């Protein structure tokens, strides 16, 4: 029987290098180029994401400032209108008391004149 020993890993890679050495070198070169392009694309994407995130945060800060300014303006306007409304209520209330007093006085005069 012939001796059937398995080829060692070193022998297999030597055979592969002999049969496909030039092609493997070309494939390795292509894979290296693709890997470099992929890494560059990933870096561009990460930079773009960082840029967009910074823009988003700046826009959010500006929106917060604008909202706070508007709320402050509304608060001041509400306080002003509240004061005006309170003044009008007091004026109407005083006028109503004066008219009520006049009406009661008139009613009292009518009652005393009929008695």
SS class: mainly alpha
Q: What is the count of helical runs?
A: 1
User: Which sheet architecture does the biggest sheet show?
Assistant: none
- Estimate the global geometry from the Cα principal axes: rod-shaped
Uncertain stretches: none
Strands, count: 0
**Element pattern in H and E:** H
Our Rg estimate from Cα atoms comes to 47 Å
- What is the arithmetic mean of pLDDT? 87
End-to-end gap:
153 Å
Helix fraction bin: over 70%
Query: In percent terms, what proportion of residues is strand?
Result: under 5%
Description of the structure:
There is one protein chain. This protein is mainly alpha-helical and 115 residues long. The protein is 92% helix and 0% strand. It contains one helix and no strands. The protein has one helix at residues 9-114. The mean pLDDT is 87.
Name a few traits of the molecule.
115 residues, mainly alpha, 1 helix, 92% helix
Topology:
Elements: H1 9-114
Outline of this structure?
With 115 residues, the protein is an all-alpha fold. It is 92% helix and 0% strand.
């Amino acid at each position: 029987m012939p001796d059937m020993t398995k080829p060692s890993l070193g022998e297999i890679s030597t055979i592969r290098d002999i049969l496909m050495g030039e092609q493997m070198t070309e494939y390795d070169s292509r894979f290296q180029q693709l890997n470099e392009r992929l890494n560059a694309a990933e870096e561009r994407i990460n930079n773009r994401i960082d840029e967009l995130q910074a823009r988003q945060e700046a826009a959010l800060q500006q929106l917060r400032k604008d909202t706070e300014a508007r709320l402050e303006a509304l608060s001041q306007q509400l306080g002003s209108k509240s004061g005006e409304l309170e003044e009008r209520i007091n004026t109407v209330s005083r006028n109503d008391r004066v008219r009520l007093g006049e009406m009661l006085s008139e009613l009292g005069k009518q009652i005393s004149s009929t008695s």
